[in-house]
Design goal:
The complex is a heterodimer of chains A (221) and B (103).
Chain A: H1 2-89, H2 93-111, E1 140-146, H3 147-165, E2 173-181, E3 186-191, E4 197-201, H4 202-213
Parallel strand pairs in A: 1-2
Antiparallel strand pairs in A: 1-3, 3-4
Helix pairs in contact in A: 2-3
Chain B: H1 3-46, H2 48-85, H3 87-101
């Protein structure tokens, strides 16, 4: 009997050892599964966060470069404005020739009714509410300019009229308005009824140039 | 069977039962220990602090990448500023003047 009990006791101990080994083994397997799952979860979170943070950082860097290009464009505009001011102050022939070109361009635009007023500082409406391109349009156009340029333009008018007469179609009646502009340079051309107005002042052209050049300028640096 | 032999058998029986009881106790204790250990093993694997610190470590790499990108951008900004000072700025000014003058 004692021998049987001894055998059974040995078996009980052996079984408990086996069972505990199995418990540990199972736990290790479960731990490995948990670790794998959690690690994958962390990697997914990391990938997501990294992608988001790097994208955001990239965008930030792009913004910095873009801001730099804008700053350089502003600087170029500023220096170009100073150059234009000098040109006007010195009454350079380049400026006077430019006035001719700007008037002809504005006249042609008004005739085609391609009018724009990009400069907010100059409060002219592009076209009145009553404007209808099908209406018979007035052929009487007037030039508005800075008082400083009036003398030159008055002298230049006959030459301008000649130039306009050389084109096809009926030439417009062109006169210099007594109304003056406060602008850096350039002109505004409008019809008698002020329905068609083309702002060709330097301010308007600078604004248009800035808009057109935008990110193109300095983009190859 | 003599009394002595019977006594011996009774003692052996008693000893055997005692031995078995002890063995069962030891077995229970061993299994309880194993369960405790197993619980610790699984808990350790589930420890959120470990995974948080792992993520933190990984994010340090991302921070390093971001710093590198920033450094590269700063270099690029210095390079653009340097290059723009010369001919590109003069060309841009001339282009703007020409456009404004309608040339």
């Amino acid at each position: 009997m004692g021998f049987l009990n001894e055998m059974e006791a040995k078996e009980v101990v052996e079984e408990s050892l086996e069972q505990s080994q199995k418990i540990i083994k199972d736990a290790e397997q479960e731990a490995a599964r948990v670790r794998e799952h959690k690690t994958r979860e962390i990697q997914d979170i990391f990938q997501e966060r990294e992608t988001s943070e790097l994208e955001s950082a990239k965008l930030g860097q792009k913004r910095k470069i873009s801001a730099l290009r804008t700053e350089l464009l502003e600087q170029a505009i500023c220096e170009a404005t100073a150059k234009l001011e000098r040109m006007i102050r010195e009454k350079s022939s380049q400026y006077e020739k430019s006035l001719d070109k700007l008037i002809i361009e504005a006249v042609e635009a008004v005739e085609k009714a391609e009018c724009f007023v990009p400069d907010e500082d100059i409060t002219y409406a592009v076209m009145g509410d009553s404007y209808n391109p099908c209406d018979v349009q007035s052929n009487e156009l007037e030039i508005l300019a800075n008082s400083r340029d009036h003398e030159f333009l008055q002298k230049e008018l006959p030459e301008l009229r000649k130039k306009l007469q050389k084109r096809k179609g009926k030439p417009p009646t062109l006169k210099l308005s007594e109304e003056t502009l406060t602008c850096l340079g350039g002109i505004i051309v409008q019809d008698k009824d002020k329905k068609r107005i083309f702002n060709n002042t330097f301010e308007a052209r600078l604004a248009k140039t800035k808009q057109e050049l935008g990110n193109k300028i300095f983009s190859d640096l | 069977m003599s009394i002595e032999e019977i006594k011996t058998l009774v003692r052996l029986e008693k000893d055997g039962k005692e031995q078995l009881r002890e063995a069962k106790e030891r077995a229970e204790s061993t299994i309880a220990e194993a369960r405790k250990k197993a619980s610790k093993i699984v808990s350790a694997a589930e420890d959120q602090e470990y995974y948080d610190s792992l993520l933190k470590e990984l994010m340090k790499q991302t921070d390093a990448k971001k710093r590198l990108m920033e450094e590269e951008t700063e270099k690029r900004i210095i390079q653009i500023r340097g290059t723009a000072k010369g001919a590109p700025m003069n060309d841009a000014i001339s282009l703007i003047v020409k456009r404004v003058l309608g040339e």
